[in-house]
What does this fold into?
Amino acid sequence: MKVRKDKKRRRKKSRDFVRDDNNKRARIIPSLYEEDLGTEGVKKKKTDLKYSRRHSISDFRVTKKENKRRNQRQSRFSNDLSTSSNYDSDGVVDNSFVRLSRGLSSSRTSSHGGGGSNLCSSSSEQVVGTCTNLEKSYFRLTTFPKAENIRPLVVLQKSLEHIKKRYVKKQDFEWANDQLKAVRQDITVQGIQNNFCLEVYETHARILLEHGDLSEFNQCQSMIRSLTSSAALAQRQNNYGKKEMEQTLEQRDEFRAYQLLYSLAQNSWTDLTASLAWDNRENNKNIEERGPSCEHAMSVIKSIINHDYRSFFKLYDSAPHLSPYLMDFFIHRVRKDAYDRIVSSYRPTMDLNFFQETLYFGSLKETKNFLKKNKVVFVKKDGGIFIDCKASSDKLREGVLNKK
It folds into this structure.
């Protein structure tokens, strides 16, 4: 047995080296540097990386073949740089690349103000488009954008109105989402930060909310939050004497409520606590009380914490703006919790209509489907259908024990 173990060790040891083009031994680079481990691969490939701790990356020999691959990868970028080089014929840095980098960096951070013009940078360094098309599909930028492919502010304002009218008329979400992403891209490239920029992000956020695209919605609301924070507004006012953009009280109240309900929909209590702290800080700076939308969102949070499902469904029925679309994401969670508490508390049986009214279902068929998924026990009594709460509660406990 010892001899076999020694042979296995020799085989493993010999695999750590390969022959390069000059027939010299070169160390194999561990899989950590060759491919993405992923979430599951970290634990599985720990044994493969044991020997990598004894050697630094500099110890690994790079072969001629690897050098050739690296040169090929670098040459891919030379074509882009040759068409829009950062240097002119005299060796002076071309300002076009600098203008784009400044515009993009300033639009992503709320601390950089938006001068007396519509752009964050000065008028001498701004990138202004010349395209006049109202409709434009979204494409991810891989090279320096050309002016003829970018729409200026005047055209973007007309494009937004065109998108709104067509969306209201045809309800074409895929088209509207693509067009609004293209508008956002033109805004970012040109570094526009004004009330129109705010209107674009608010419009896109509402449309995304209607169709349940929470990931894109979160991007929009995060941008709105960074643009309208008191710190960003104060920075613009100190630098340029005016705030350039500011939400109305109703809009601010609406999107702060969305922020709270979004954290609740994601079941992220850490983000919810941070959102509440940020909301309190902003209210104190503006010397304002919460509006009706924020008060509604706070009541929803309290109803879920206290397991008050009756109050939750009343709040769901009276939710302002587009809050019901966010509440849809955790209404099943509330119904499941309410069902568990009802069958554990009521005895001996409960009417099916009681569950329909209490859990806010639209029809008896929808109520039955929900109860069947939770393995409820039905009984016929007095010509009607009832739920045996005791038997259903026992099944519920069995399911919890089986999971453990």
About this structure: Confidence is low (pLDDT under 50) at residues 7-18, 25-59, 80-124. DSSP finds 18 helices and five strands in the chain. The beta strands are 17-19, 25-27, 349-351, 378-381, 384-388.
